Amino acid sequence: MAVIGALGLSSIALAAAPAFAKGSVEITAPHTARAGQTITVKAHGGDDSAGYLHQLCLEENGFGEGWHQEICSSAVKGDARVTARGASAHRGNLEFRGVLYGLTGTHDKHPVRLHASDVVTVHVR
């Protein structure tokens, strides 16, 4: 009887544990590029949190500018994808990351940051 009671308590504890949404953002970019050459950066991501539309943004950090948004996808249900193309006139390192936001509607003024990708670095020579 004690074993059955213990099993019952552990199943209640498991049921009471909070559920966490699963999601991720993946990003791809070339390792190196020549100054003036087109650099293509792609990201895709999603999250299973209910009630949100998803918007994926690519952010760039380089040449003392700090992190700033380069481009964002439209708000979509399910997985979001975004591609940025551009060239750097300067030599040095450019860093990129993808950030996935959750929105309650297409005109949501307060998006929730859900996930961010690892940072990828492009060495511009």
Anisotropy-based shape: elongated
The DSSP helix count reads 1
How many beta-strand elements? 9
- How far apart the termini lie comes to 72 Å
Element string (H = helix, E = strand): HEEEEEEEEE
Strand content: over 45%
The main β sheet shows up as: 6 strands, mixed
What is the residue-mean pLDDT, rounded to a whole number?
Answer: 87
Based on helices, strands and strand pairing, what is the structural class?
A: mainly beta
Radius of gyration: 20 Å
Provide the low-confidence segments as ranges: 1-18
Helix content: 10-25%
What does it look like?
This protein has 125 residues and is mostly beta strands. The protein is 12% helix and 50% strand. It is built from one helix and nine strands, in the order αβββββββββ. It has one helix at 2-16; strands at 23-28, 32-33, 38-47, 53-62, 68-72, 80-87, 92-103, 112-116, 120-124. Strands 2, 4, 5, 7, 8 and 9 form a six-stranded mixed β-sheet that branches. It has a three-stranded antiparallel β-sheet with strand order 1-3-6, with no helix packed on it. β4 (53-62) and β5 (68-72) form a beta hairpin. The longest helix has 15 residues, at 2-16. The relative contact order is 0.27.
